[in-house]
Structure formats: C-alpha cells, structure tokens
Amino acid sequence: MEKTKYKKAKQRVEEIKEFYGKVASAVVTIILVAALNYYLNEWEYAWFLWVVFGLSMSLFFKANKIFNLNPFMNRDWEERKIQEFLQQEENIQRWN
User: Residue limits of the 2TM domain (predicted)?
Assistant: First the structure.
C-alpha cells in the first residue's frame, strides 16, 4: 500500500517537473521567435503572437490536466465515478 502511494507521488512530481520544463522551453521558444520576427520585419506584422497563442493553449491544457484545474472532472470525480460503477456492478451480481 505504501509503495503504491509512493509511486503515485513520485509520478506526480515527475509530471510537475516535466510541466515546468515545458514552460521553460516555451519561454525560450517565444523569445527566439519574437527576436526572429523583429529581425525580419521589425514588428510590421507580429506573427510570433500566433506561436505564443499556440504554446499558451498547449500549456493551459497540460496545466489543467496536471493541477486538476477543471472543477467538474478532476481526479476526485474520476475516483467517485469508479467507485460508483464498482458499486453498480456489485449490486447487479448480488441480484443474479
């Protein structure tokens, strides 16, 4: 039991660590693309903002998954649903 808790905690730490690595990578990418955009057309058309938008959306969904930002279908919800289905299955088998 303790080993599974430890494994889950370690996996969660790895997910968070990976997320922060992605944030750092996104920041570096945005800086490079913004510099390239400025070098090529001196902000006449700020096309690098499309890259910012895409990376921001990607990071938002990743953060939503890792930090349980969705109040309706978070990990607690998943666990409650699993328990509910297990209870339903047990009730069906009990009456058969």
Answer: 7-86
